[in-house]
Amino acid sequence: MEIEDSAADSHADGPNDSPVPAYAVWRSTAADPAFSEWLRSASEPDWTAVVTHPFAAAIIRGEADMRRYLVQDFQFVDAFTALLGAAVAGADRFESRVPFGRFLGQIVTDTERSYFHRALADLGVGADDLTSPVLEPVTVRFRALMDEARVSQEYPVILAVLCLAEWIYLGWASRAAEPLPERFLHREWIDLHSGPEFEAWVGFLRGELDRIGPSLGEDGQARVLGFFREAARLERGFFDMAEG
Ligand SMILES: Cc1ncc(CO)c(N)n1
């Protein structure tokens, strides 16, 4: 991978590049031998750091200052949307293209886009910061990772980045309990990343990795893991950035 020296690498516990047993070895003793679970468990401690991040907790309490985060995330979503297009193109069968196409058309380019437009207007974000803000280093790195996955046209690699981003967001957002925050800025952002439909979407992404991952061979599996772990590291850096 060509992403170097992440800003998120400055955590006290260092970059998450500790050795991981190969999938074939790991699965023989794992309680849940799913390929996606191999990826997730190998992404600790970043996984848990994201799901329990103070910024995510502040969103759930309705207290997070969303401005810097959402300005940067709108630029994340741009590259993410392009990556969904690559998944439509790269999936190995029609029935797998469908959920990507549906999520692309019904959620990202509709419900979520509407949220961003209302949220950024509510926060008083001007036209320039909506379309072309100064990117934070972690945003540059995350966009670069998504672009690298997209141009690779490798379905397993594309899936790895999409699945990490969605699954880890389900992780923090699912920690929200009723009553959700009153302000739409926080409430709708939680709603977009939790609930039965979002759970089914993450279930689909995991299922694709579980279907395809085991037969990739050790090098292919290591490549998928590299993208998945780097995305977890960047998610952590992204929430750190949002905290300011
Ligand atoms: C940084 C980041 N990761 C994941 C998601 C969920 O798609 C998001 N909107 N932003």
Automatic annotation (TrEMBL):
The lineage of its organism: Bacteria, Bacillati, Actinomycetota, Actinomycetes, Streptosporangiales. This is Aminopyrimidine aminohydrolase. It catalyses: thiamine + H2O = 5-(2-hydroxyethyl)-4-methylthiazole + 4-amino-5-hydroxymethyl-2-methylpyrimidine + H(+); 4-amino-5-aminomethyl-2-methylpyrimidine + H2O = 4-amino-5-hydroxymethyl-2-methylpyrimidine + NH4(+). Residues 44-242 form the Thiaminase-2/PQQC domain. Pathway: Cofactor biosynthesis; thiamine diphosphate biosynthesis. GO terms for molecular function: thiaminase activity. One of its GO terms (biological process) is thiamine diphosphate biosynthetic process. One of its GO terms (cellular component) is cytosol.
